């Protein structure tokens, strides 16, 4: 009798074990941190196929600094491809990761050699680096929403204004602005070359230099900003404001000197 009971018990145990073996094992869902690390690694390896497993079909990658809102696998892959084309050697690294299911927050660094439109204009082969923060929403072991926050201008090296080089177009535009300002002066005060046939402006270059004018026989230090001095001393006072000291006659005749405190860029 006892032997029969033991045999029946063994049969039940074997049947239970077989049933357990027949059931498929549930796969473990990866953590949000692991999914984020895999996503960053896919960018560094240019692995577009990996995104199919790491992102939900309706996933969103939003880059706030660049104004990018890519939704769906196709748009996200397009955004990734464009970034890699401009920076083929990107190195994206996570420095701090904090997970609070289903959200993950991470600080990261980014370096690369950039070619394209930068904050101040087109650049080619420029080394850039910067830091940023990402907030990630995960769902069933996949990324549902990925949002980047960073200052794009801080990634590019600062250019000193003293070392900046103007292009020919910029120089031409600056010169034209000076000419336009002079025309406005002429229109406002009625000063023109035709009104002063006996006067000749000899120099229009650099700051605080001596400028020579044929202005009858009067010598005086004034402020003219590279513009013509019209009429006698009293009309010049009305046009230019004031004279720093009392004028005196020039022994050399009709050649006079004046000291310019500001001059134009021509």
Summarize the structure.
It is built from 6 helices and 10 strands; from the N terminus they run αααββαββββαββαββ. It is α+β, with helices and mostly antiparallel strands. Residues 197-266 have low confidence and may be disordered.
Q: Using the coordinates shown, work out and report the CATH topology of the largest domain.
A: Nuclear Transport Factor 2, Chain: A
Q: Which sheet architecture does the biggest sheet show?
A: 6 strands, mixed
Order of helices and strands: HHHEEHEEEEHEEHEE
**Helix fraction?**
25-40%
Rg over CA atoms, rounded to whole Å, is 39 Å
Give the number of helices: 6
- Kindly name the structural category: alpha+beta
Structure report:
There is one protein chain. This protein has 266 residues and is α+β, with helices and mostly antiparallel strands. The protein has 2 domains: 32-155, Roll (Nuclear Transport Factor 2, Chain: A); 168-259, no CATH class. Helix content is 31%, strand content 30%. It contains 6 helices and 10 strands; from the N terminus they run αααββαββββαββαββ. The chain has helices at 2-22, 32-45, 51-54, 73-86, 168-189, 233-240; strands spanning 55-63, 68-71, 91-100, 103-118, 121-139, 142-150, 210-214, 218-219, 248-249, 255-259. The protein has a 6-stranded mixed sheet with strand order 2-1-6-5-4-3. Strand 5 (121-139) and strand 6 (142-150) form a beta hairpin. The chain is elongated and about 90 Å long. It starts with a helix and ends in a 7-residue tail after the last strand. Mean pLDDT is 73; it is low at 197-266.
């Amino acid at each position: 009798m006892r032997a029969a009971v033991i045999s029946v018990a063994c049969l039940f145990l074997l049947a239970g074990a077989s049933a357990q073996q027949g059931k498929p094992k549930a796969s473990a869902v990866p953590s949000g941190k692991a999914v984020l690390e895999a996503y960053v690694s896919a960018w560094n390896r240019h692995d577009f196929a990996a995104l199919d497993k790491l992102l939900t079909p309706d996933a969103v990658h939003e880059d706030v600094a660049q104004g990018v809102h890519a939704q769906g696998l196709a748009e996200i892959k397009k955004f990734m491809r464009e970034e890699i084309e401009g920076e083929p050697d990107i190195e994206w690294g996570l420095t701090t990761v904090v997970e609070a299911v289903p959200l993950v927050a991470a600080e990261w660094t980014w370096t690369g050699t950039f070619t394209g439109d930068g904050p101040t204009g087109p650049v080619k082969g420029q080394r850039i680096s910067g830091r940023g923060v990402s907030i990630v929403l995960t769902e069933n072991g996949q990324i549902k929403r990925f949002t980047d926050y960073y200052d794009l201008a801080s990634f590019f090296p600062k250019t000193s204004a003293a070392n900046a080089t103007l292009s020919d177009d910029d120089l031409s535009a600056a010169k034209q602005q000076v000419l336009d300002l002079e025309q406005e002066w002429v229109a406002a005060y009625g000063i023109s070359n035709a009104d002063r046939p006996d006067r000749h402006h000899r120099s229009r270059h650099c700051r605080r230099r001596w400028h020579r004018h044929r202005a009858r026989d009067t010598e005086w230090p004034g402020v003219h900003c590279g513009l013509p001095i019209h009429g006698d001393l009293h009309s010049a006072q009305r046009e230019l404001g004031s004279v720093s000291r009392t004028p005196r006659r020039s022994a050399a005749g009709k050649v006079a000197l004046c000291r310019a405190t500001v001059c134009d860029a021509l």
